[in-house]
Design brief:
This protein has about 450 residues and is an alpha/beta fold. About 25% of the residues lie in helices and about 25% in strands.
């Protein structure tokens, strides 16, 4: 079998790489090869267990690929010969290519130190429909669940289980939930809202052992506390899925990601990598970043595909900003760029500004929500380094605006003189727009 552009992996990076490649090089034959018959929307996985209720309601559709004429092959690549430009699959096929993109994603990470992780009813969170269907099928058996790891996925899983009237305890080794993404005050907002909804939250707490004869019966914590449990969800993190890349001779960095340049090219000619498996550098610091986000994967995939046949200095990946958002109930929590904690540890000279307002006007409208915006601004230049948002559902889009400002290296003054559109049912007041008011607070700090 021959193809011009071969993409290994069918999740966010693979999907976007294939569609971008075919759209920009319509005369090229594009093939995406993936192991899964149906691909999960990664960020929607927690909602399968509550709001959605089924994996079939959380599928990345193939319609866009099919409409463009992308070939979809359900198989698994077991080896790649980058000199011969061929790969072999589990089903015995040999495929030759002109250009190759690795989009193999990531796999759940579980520390070997957790005893009892092999017991029945101990689950990880892979992006695998068959696995998730098996977990979902058992859900009716569970009355008490312990979720280990309070990053975004752990928090979302806890909230979804709670909606099903399951007794949920969320255990986090760090002092704050979502503590690697947010400054403490925003983590506190999330923890308060999660507890108010009925989830038990234990921070600064380590899981020592998952106990049971054949299946889970309890969880032993580091302080000796024992939590009864019918099931345990390990949402501790992910690691890049790069074994195939390594076996194919591609160079990995010290964190296990495929080394790439700003065009997403590897050191091997005509081989690219994008998404969770690919190396990333922080936008502000330039340091190696371990952030894995579907939105970042899509951006990288576009860059990789655009540069397959014609390199452009404008089509580059400038570093990961790290734009996160989630919700608990009706409230959203979002962050982009540097937190104050990171800005301090990296020794940036910065100021912050926080404003608490509302997201509608007048405030008597029934769906009005409080909205708190915090900005991190470089003192010497006024460049926006980061921002956080807490409030109603509009926070998810507002953090994208802040992300655009960071990537565009906008300054505080750009925000202060920005023109915005407002409408009572849709936005905050133009006279008290929280983003601009937070910028005003920063401006006062800059003068001090």
């Amino acid at each position: 079998m021959k193809t011009d552009i071969l993409i290994i992996g069918g999740s966010a990076a693979g999907l976007v790489a294939a569609m971008t490649a075919k759209s920009n090089f319509p005369g090229k034959d594009v093939t995406i090869i993936r192991k899964e018959e149906k691909v999960m929307i990664p960020c929607g996985i927690p909602y399968i267990f509550g709001t959605l209720g089924a994996t079939d309601k959380n599928i990345l559709p193939d319609a866009g690929l099919e409409k463009l004429g992308v070939n979809i092959l359900i198989d698994e690549v077991i080896s790649v010969d980058t000199d011969a430009k061929t790969c072999k699959t589990k089903a015995g096929k040999e495929i030759s290519y002109e250009k190759l993109i690795f989009g193999t994603g990531s796999l759940p990470f579980v520390p070997a130190s957790i005893i009892g992780q092999d017991l029945k009813n101990v689950f990880t969170v892979p992006k695998n429909k068959v696995y998730l269907d098996a977990v979902l099928e058992k859900m009716s058996e569970f009355k008490k669940i312990v979720v280990v790891g309070a990053g975004f996925i752990g928090v979302e899983f806890s909230d979804e289980f709670n909606k099903k009237d399951i007794d949920v305890t969320l255990v986090e080794v760090l002092p704050k939930i979502m503590g690697t993404a947010f400054d403490p005050e925003f983590s506190d907002f999330a923890e308060e809202d999660l507890k108010a909804r009925g989830v038990k939250v234990l921070t600064s707490t380590m899981v020592k052992e998952i106990k049971g004869d054949d299946k889970v019966s309890s969880v032993l914590l580091g302080d000796g506390t024992v939590l009864e449990a019918d099931a345990v969800i390990l949402s501790i993190g992910y690691k890049p899925n790069t074994k195939l890349a390594k076996d194919s001779g591609l160079e990995l960095n010290e964190a296990g990601f495929i080394k790439v340049d700003r065009y997403l090219r590897t050191a091997v000619k005509d081989v690219y990598a994008a998404g969770d498996c690919a190396e990333k550098h922080d936008f502000a610091t330039g340091k190696i970043s371990k952030i894995m986000l579907a939105s970042t994967a899509c951006a990288e995939a576009r860059v990789a595909a655009l540069n397959l046949y014609k390199l452009s200095t404008t089509n580059i990946f400038r570093g990961t900003i790290g734009i996160y958002s989630t919700s608990i109930g009706d409230m959203s929590y979002a962050v982009a760029g540097l937190t104050e904690g990171v800005a301090r540890s990296e020794e940036f000279d910065y100021v912050t500004g926080t404003f608490a307002g509302i997201d509608r006007h007048p405030g008597s409208l029934t769906d009005t929500s409080k909205q708190i915006v915090k900005l991190i601004v470089q003192r010497c230049s006024g460049v926006i380094l980061g921002g956080s948002v807490y409030g109603g559902k509009s926070g998810g889009e507002l953090i994208n605006v802040i992300g655009f400002a960071i990537q565009g290296r906008m300054t505080l003054n750009d925000l202060l003189v920005a023109q915005i559109g407002t409408q009572p049912m849709l936005t905050a007041s133009p006279a008290a727009y929280p983003l601009i008011k937070a910028a005003e607070v920063c401006a006062k700090q800059m003068k001090n």
